[in-house]
UniProtKB/TrEMBL annotation:
CDD domains: retropepsin_like_bacteria (cd05483). GO terms for molecular function: peptidase activity. Its EC number is 3.4.23.-. GO terms for biological process: proteolysis. This is TIGR02281 family clan AA aspartic protease.
Length: 192
């Protein structure tokens, strides 16, 4: 009886966590034994303090799930059914849209500048056809890209010219180095 009650409480805690995350439009990644908020919308401040009941349920639920699935990052979709995350490159956090249709990791000019990557104009030799027209990009190599506890080395990337894109992309040059990635139960799941 106690075991059934505990399982029911854990399931309700997970549902509360998912509801709160969806309502606040947060993204979560598994790391260090607990779910960690890795992105909040940049254009909107949090309007309320975290609910301690939901936090307790989240800590209990994520601790058991993390032990079962090390090296896994799960992302919830945003309001447009897209997946966004923070990727860490050389110690700097870069906000990115997960794009399985992008052959490479793509850095906006601003994000590249944050990383001290400023290619000369002569390096913008790669032509890409986008929804907004043709873009010229500069090829670069990233020593290490980290998303949550997943770490990938020697990642090919492209840097966009200033004004061509405001959003960096987490593309296939990162994703193809994982053991797997998929959409499962509405979440984008990446495994080291």
């Amino acid at each position: 009886m106690f075991e059934q009650t505990a399982k029911m409480a854990l399931a309700l805690g997970l549902l509360a966590l998912l509801f709160v995350a969806a309502a606040q439009n947060h993204w979560f990644a598994r790391g260090g034994g607990a779910l960690e908020t890795i992105m909040a919308p940049r254009d909107r401040a949090m309007s309320a303090a975290p609910d301690p009941v939901s936090q307790s349920a989240a800590t209990l639920a994520s601790a058991s799930r993390s032990r079962a699935l090390p090296g896994v990052v799960e992302l919830a979709p945003d309001g447009n059914a897209q997946y966004q995350t923070e990727m860490e490159i050389d110690g700097a956090s870069i906000h990115a849209l997960v794009d399985t249709g992008a052959t490479y990791v793509v850095l906006s000019a601003d994000d590249a500048h944050t990383l001290d990557i400023d290619p000369p104009s002569s390096d913008f030799t790669v032509k890409a056809h986008t929804a907004n027209g043709t873009a010229m990009l500069a090829p670069v190599r990233l020593r290490e890209v980290r998303v949550g506890e997943i770490e990938v080395h020697d990642v090919q990337a492209l840097v966009a010219k200033p004004g061509q894109t405001t959003m960096s992309l987490l593309g296939m040059s990162f994703l193809k180095k994982l053991s797997s990635f998929q959409v499962a139960d509405g979440r984008f799941v990446m495994k080291q």
